[in-house]
């Protein structure tokens, strides 16, 4: 080959969702040029010896809250994407519960400009799909959203929950566009009643939060979302699955051919009610961390494909906001984008699943369901060179104080882990090298909406949409 690569990585183990292979990787102009034997590689301006290391497709975390604009004491787009890079995450999708809420073209445009200026890794931006933004679906798509977020229940940001009627109309509006709708699937009316009664009864301890959001809250919401997705043909993605009970409506909808996918997070796989006493309010998150009996079914669902994706719901808050005495005043969520990969790799090292399974959940599947595959989610010729170079043997202890997120308070502080991203490469460029942030990488991240290629839209029941009914006029008797 008469080309000079920008970078050749030698002696590593390249991991894909199906297999692992000892191979070299050549990179040029941000893209993987070749994967193969060392002596088949072109000349290179720079080489990296990855002896003893694994090359994973950079993780795609489709659920982070980088708080920008609006909450600089919690995070901003620079700190959040730096934390991502240190965690081996090369693409993030940022949620719209920033200030102002992303639900119109002007707010979205301002956030796009801010993110383009600050991002160290690639990103997609969500917009809220709610009562007031149904009519704005076309302008939000024109503004480059990666997908829509629908809040079926209240959480941080107090975004109003659409009624089922508004939700149906919203699904009708999105179905013909082919975009995917991510759901915060917890039913608001149930939680509101429970919370009011618990507060009246004087319950203010951390477990009162779980009592206000029992499993049925999530089961009911997932079931309803699945029915509306099936009825309209809109694509849906169930965020942060926390319970065993949600798996049945999800699996049944999949079996009926509904384009619905699911995600869970490390805290639902590795924590339980046993951790509430140790963590206090720090563990408060929506949906709540539940009883230990949910964990095995969640692992099994990842392994059998009912759950598609590992994401983090990275939801940073300041220490003061997380350590108030009255649980109802504690902000919900905690940081996670930097610890997901080490936490999951620790479970892989223990034999929970294979490293290929992990790559399927963290990279290949999110790339596929968001229309980014094979540009992202795989290390092969023609793909973006988004690579986490990982030491699977490195044992270390998570310390909140060492986090790159502004929020240095999580339930993971002091946890023993095995596996560390040593270098993180985004489109061919080192963002983290030898555990050091590389100069000049601010603004290197790009919005991935331009490379998003969703399958053809598949709307159904088009004769029964609100628009169709209204435009058909009065019925003859
Ligand atoms: C998230 C946040 O803080 O933005 N909090 C949380 O508890 N998960 C919101 C959310 O994803 O529900
Ligand atoms: Zn949520």
Structural write-up:
- It is a single chain.
- The chain contains 15 helices and 17 strands.
- Helix 5 (188-200) packs across helix 6 (206-212) and helix 7 runs parallel beside helix 8 (247-255).
- It is 30% helix and 22% strand.
- The model has no long low-confidence stretch (mean pLDDT 97).
- It has 477 residues and is of the alpha/beta class.
- It folds into 2 domains: 4-49, Urease, subunit C, domain 1 (Roll); 58-376 and 391-414, Metal-dependent hydrolases (TIM Barrel).
- It has helices spanning 77-86, 105-118, 137-142, 164-174, 188-200, 206-212, 215-232, 247-255, 266-270, 276-279, 295-304, 319-322, 340-349, 355-369, 466-471; strands spanning 4-15, 20-28, 31-36, 43-49, 54-57, 59-64, 89-94, 122-128, 147-151, 180-184, 235-238, 260-264, 309-310, 387-397, 416-426, 429-433, 436-437.
- The longest helix is centred in the middle third of the chain and has 18 residues, at 215-232.
- The chain binds N-carbamoyl-L-aspartate and zinc ion (ZN).
- N-carbamoyl-L-aspartate is lined by residues 65, 97, 155-157, 184, 285-286, 313, 315, 332-333.
